[in-house]
Write a structure and sequence with these properties.
heterodimer, A: mainly beta, Immunoglobulin-like, three-stranded antiparallel sheet, about 0% helix, B: alpha+beta, 4 domains, five-stranded antiparallel sheet, about 35% strand, elongated
């Protein structure tokens, strides 16, 4: 079992903020490798785009461990939700042998909520 | 591993290579058909114009049947003998094209003319008397190979698409994509924006498409008509294709006229602007602005999503913001002017993920009476807020 916990359980960040917390795993055996990725991906009608913004390798020496992490966030792209496309930021913890994946989504926005394009407009005008 | 596969999705080098290979095969095959079915026979035909007219006797003639997946095709086989110089020779060449068609009747008519035992005239190569031909007149069959040029055109389009797609997906980072303005005035710092497509590009694009569409449709119609039989269902089936072809010809004509339109020139005081900031947009009409009766400029924000279904790729767009900047019928205002544009603060900045994009563009439209309208779009980069001052 993998887990990601951000500091103070915070899931809303602004451009340039630092996201920090602890990555942990409880597995049957010690993983050969553990990596943490800072990335975004798109959702919606278009084929998915994704981009790994930063990554770090966590030293794995046991089957049960907890490691601190810290990433400085870039100024873009913002999390947003449109009629055709949405963009989601996420942290992804991956272990190898045993192979496990855990994802923790968060928001990157200069406002307290993510940008909603055409907010309040339900017209089908595309 | 999930993450690695996601990262690789942004790379399209393999797809680009496939397009070059696929397009190259089309071009090579098209050139092969063009050479073998038209150029080489036409060269032989020109050469045969100096060959010697010689009497000959038809020894054997019949209609040959060629079986194929799409049914049978037919050609005329005629074997004849002739005397030239001190020797006797045989030949079986009716003309230099070897096009078999679905019309048996047409080839039977040729065989009837050259029935076994009849006398005729053939043309003999004086330098190689064993080489001869019965007919040396130019017929539509010599132009069959020009259909190969359609494949050449299609192959070139595939290659061009590959080049375009490759250049648009080279930048990996969504934040790093920025269009280069075509011209920056070093004294004022103003940037002239580049239009999305010029009238010449549109004219060439629709002309190539119309040539390919009408070439294929024309070849199919030619085949139906040359078969001789009047198949009503065939005519009904082909009617929509012919109508689209006629519309495309109209589109070619329309875009040809559009090449003589006045052009809109847009410039801004900087190449990219932050959300919430003001920019100064300046427009001017190059050419006769008096022809434009009304003129409109808008700033629009688009979502653009590209997706594949099966082997086809589609692109959907949705405009999420429209800001009217100018809507006038005043000639003096149409000719040139300036306007201050306030970029919304709560919106989404320009974004290019490869398949998914947020595009900001200035859209211009000028109405001309009894003539194609002036219209174009100019992409402009909107940057995120300066985060040091927010939140």
């Amino acid at each position: 079992m993998l887990n990601l916990k951000t500091k103070d359980d915070r899931l809303e960040y602004g451009p340039g903020d630092t996201i920090e917390g602890r990555a942990s795993w409880r597995l049957d055996s010690s993983p050969k490798k553990a990596q943490l990725f800072l990335m975004w991906f798109t959702m919606g009608k278009g084929d998915e785009d994704s981009y790994i913004v930063d990554e770090c390798e966590l030293t794995a020496s046991g089957s049960e461990e907890e490691k601190p992490f810290s990433f400085k966030l870039p100024d873009r792209p913002y999390s947003f939700e449109g009629k055709l496309i949405s963009l989601q930021w996420t942290l992804e913890l991956v272990t190898h042998d045993p192979d496990e994946v855990y994802r923790k989504d968060f928001m990157l926005s200069p406002w307290v909520e993510q940008v909603v394009l055409n907010k309040g407009d339900d017209d089908d005008d595309d | 591993m999930a993450i690695q596969s996601k990262a690789i999705k942004n790379k399209s080098v393999g797809g680009r290579g496939c397009m070059f290979i696929f397009g190259g095969i089309f071009v090579a095959a098209g050139l092969g058909v063009f050479w073998a079915a038209s150029i080489a026979p036409l060269m032989q035909l020109i050469d045969a114009r100096s060959w010697d007219e010689t009497p000959c006797v038809v020894e054997e003639s019949y209609v040959e049947t060629h079986s194929g997946d799409d049914g049978n095709t037919y050609s005329a086989y005629i074997r004849y003998s002739y005397a030239y110089g001190n020797g006797d020779y045989e030949g079986d060449q009716y003309n230099f094209t070897d096009v078999s068609t679905g019309s048996r009747k047409r080839h039977q008519a040729i065989v009837d003319i050259y029935s076994a035992g009849s006398t005729a005239v053939c043309y003999v190569n004086p330098d190689a008397p064993e080489e001869s031909v019965l007919k040396r007149n130019l017929t539509p069959g010599y132009f069959f190979g020009f259909m190969g040029l359609l494949f050449v055109g299609a192959g070139c389009l595939v290659i061009l698409f590959g080049v375009f797609q490759g250049s648009s997906s080279n930048a990996k980072s969504a934040s790093a994509r920025r269009r280069d303005p075509i011209q920056t005035d070093s004294s004022t710092g103003r940037v002239t924006l580049e239009p999305e497509s010029g009238p010449i590009g549109r004219f060439i694009g629709i002309t190539i498409f119309a040539l390919i569409w009408n070439g294929i449709t024309g070849a199919v119609c030619f085949g139906i008509l040359s078969d001789g039989g009047v198949e009503v269902m065939a005519y009904i089936f082909m009617t929509p294709f012919v109508l689209v072809g006629v519309l495309l010809i109209g589109g070619v004509f329309y875009n040809f006229l559009g090449m003589f339109n006045p052009r809109v020139r847009l410039s801004v005081d900087r190449g990219a602007a932050r959300m919430g900031s003001d920019i100064e947009l300046e427009w001017s009409i190059v050419g006769s602005s008096n022809r434009i009766k009304s003129f409109r400029i808008k700033l629009e924000g688009h979502e653009q999503a590209r997706y594949t279904r099966g082997t086809n790729t589609y692109t959907d767009e949705h405009i999420f913001t429209t800001i009217d900047l100018l809507n006038t019928s005043e000639r003096r205002e149409i000719a040139n002017g300036r306007v201050t544009v306030t970029i919304p603060e709560y919106t989404m900045h320009s974004f290019d993920g490869g398949n998914n994009k947020i595009i900001w563009e200035f859209s211009v439209h000028g109405e001309i009476n009894r003539w194609p309208d002036v219209g174009n779009t100019f992409e402009y980069e909107i940057l995120p807020l300066d985060h040091s001052e927010n939140r």
